[in-house]
Write a structure and sequence with these properties.
281 residues; mainly alpha; two-stranded antiparallel ribbon
């Protein structure tokens, strides 16, 4: 039969080895779970950043398209306003030219009328039978002087009309320039550079799972525990405590052949076996 201390040592060592293996496996599973969770979180963060970058690019693309459409509409409105301004300038200039032409026509008609009146006045003087001389010359000169005054008045009015026409043309051109400047200032310019794509996020590096631990360490720990337990209970003192105790018990109780089954020719003193009679001392 095995000694109880040896069995106890084996049980303690086995329990220590099993516990060590269980703890080692639990720690390994925890490490694997932590690595998998870290990889999953890094991967999910990478996917989220990709989605955010894609969403931002789509927003920038739609905004760029909207800015292009707005710029096209602004330019269309600009050129339409420029066309309207040109039409208005032409209309105003034509109206001013017509007004000047009308005044010029009136001046020419008035000049013709005055000339005709002057001719009639001179003819009336010549037909009056007045004796040729200073009086007739004075009457004729007076008619020509009146015609000259009237013609000068007509010419002055025509010159004034031409100056007014020039000022109106200047005002018309200035109004067109101001309207064109307002239309130009309403232009925002629109986008000049197309938006660039966002930088792709850096793909995370996958962490490797830790290597599966070897059970050799816990087993060696169990053996060490078993040996320590066995040494603590038996101590290996001179062949063992149980053997010494058994021999002492037999000697004190007088067991064996020296107590109850003594062989002939032997005797005991004080529980010690004596040599046979006649034997050599």
């Amino acid at each position: 039969m095995c000694e109880p201390t040896l069995i106890l040592s084996a049980v303690a060592g086995g329990a220590q080895a099993i516990t060590g293996i269980q703890q080692q496996n639990a720690q390994y599973r925890a490490q694997v779970a932590e690595v998998d969770r870290s990889n999953m979180m890094a991967r999910q963060d990478y996917i989220n950043k990709l989605n955010i970058a894609s969403h931002d690019d789509q927003l920038k693309g739609r905004q760029f398209e909207a800015e292009l459409k707005a710029a096209a509409s602004e330019k269309t409105a600009y050129w339409k306003q420029r066309e309207i301004n040109q039409i208005e300038q032409s209309r105003a200039s034509t109206a001013a030219q017509m007004e000047l032409n009308e005044k010029a026509s009136q001046a020419a008609l008035k000049g013709q009328t005055l000339l005709a009146e002057s001719i009639r006045a001179q003819g009336a003087v010549l037909a009056s039978g007045m004796q040729a001389g200073q009086s007739m010359l004075g009457e004729l000169t007076q008619a020509e002087r009146e015609l000259g005054f009237a013609q000068a008045e007509i010419d002055a009015g025509l010159f004034s009309a031409e100056q007014q026409y020039a000022m109106k043309e200047y005002d018309i051109a200035l109004s067109k320039y101001s309207a064109d400047a307002v239309a130009t200032s309403n232009l925002t310019g629109g986008p000049t550079i197309a938006p660039s794509a966002s930088f792709a996020p850096i793909e995370p590096i996958k962490r490797n799972r830790p290597s599966k631990p070897s059970p050799l360490g816990p087993i060696l720990g169990g053996l060490t525990t078993g040996m320590s337990t066995y040494m603590a209970t038996s101590g290996f003192r001179g062949g063992g405590t149980s053997t010494t105790t058994t021999t002492t018990a037999k000697a004190s109780s007088g067991g064996g052949a020296g107590s109850y089954g003594q062989t002939p020719g032997t005797r005991h003193r004080g529980g010690m076996r004596s040599r046979p009679y006649g034997g050599r001392r």
